[in-house]
Design a protein that fits this description.
mainly alpha; single chain
Length: about 45
């Protein structure tokens, strides 16, 4: 995952889904995916 692509996706979702919880859920998803990836690389 590229940070620039993640930022772009969050920015686009913020424009589309104003006043919803979607941007927050997307950020949590990306964070969980990053943590999962880091743990898989260490094993």
């Amino acid at each position: 995952m590229r940070v620039a692509k993640v930022r772009e996706a969050i920015f686009d979702l913020n424009k589309i889904a104003k006043e919803t919880i979607w941007p927050l859920e997307l950020m949590v998803f990306f964070a969980e995916t990053a943590v999962q990836s880091i743990h898989e690389d260490k094993c």
